[in-house]
Amino acid sequence: MTGYTQADARAAWRAVRGEVLGEELSTAARELAVAALYSQRRTDAEIAAVLRLSTYTTARIRERLRLRARHPDAATVSASVHTGGRHS
Q1: Following CA atoms 53, 59, 64, 67 in sequence, which dihedral angle do they give, to the nearest 10 degrees?
Q2: Residue 61 class from Cβ within 10 Å (0-12 exposed, 13-18 middle, 19+ buried)?
Q3: Using CB atoms within 10 A of its CB, is residue 68 exposed (0-12), middle (13-18) or buried (19+)?
Q4: Hey, is 67 helix, strand or coil?
Q5: How far apart are CA 77 and CA 49, in angstroms?
Q6: CA distance 10 to 18
Q7: Which of 19, 22, 47, 64 sits between 20 and 30 A of 85, alpha carbons compared?
Q8: Residue 25: which of 43, 16, 12 has the closest Cα?
Q9: For position 70, what pLDDT does the model report?
Q10: Helix residue ranges, H only, 17-86
Q11: Cβ neighbours of residue 32 under 8 Å, at least 6 residues apart?
Q12: Vertex 24, ends 14 and 46: CA angle to 5°?
């Protein structure tokens, strides 16, 4: 990710906090917002809900950033594998 301005970063941060709609952001600010929420290990559906975008739009932005999809049950499966099927 390159070529982002401070204004893009500020707008993205406001969207992550729920102060503005994702559709009001520039393309660059949307990319930053999706990347920020993705770094918090959120799924496309979770990111879409926070930014108030469609899951299709969120997935398209994530793919443009070359980020892998996260599945909602991945954490549960991972925990089950590491604990031998026991949930703590």
Answers
A1: 120
A2: buried
A3: exposed
A4: coil
A5: 23
A6: 12
A7: 47
A8: 12
A9: 87
A10: 27-38, 44-51, 55-64, 74-82
A11: 1, 4, 8, 9, 12
A12: 65
Query: What type of residue sits at position 43?
Result: T
What is the reported pLDDT for 7?
97
pLDDT for the residue 3:
85
Please count the residues of the chain: 88
Question: What tens-digit pLDDT sequence spans the chain (88 residues)?
Answer: 568 999 999 999 999 999 999 999 999 999 999 999 999 999 999 999 999 999 999 999 999 999 999 887 655 554 444 455 554 4
The owner of tokens 């108030």 is 52
Which residue in this structure is represented by tokens 């990111």?
47
Could you state, in order of their start, the residue ranges of all structural domains in the chain?
6-68
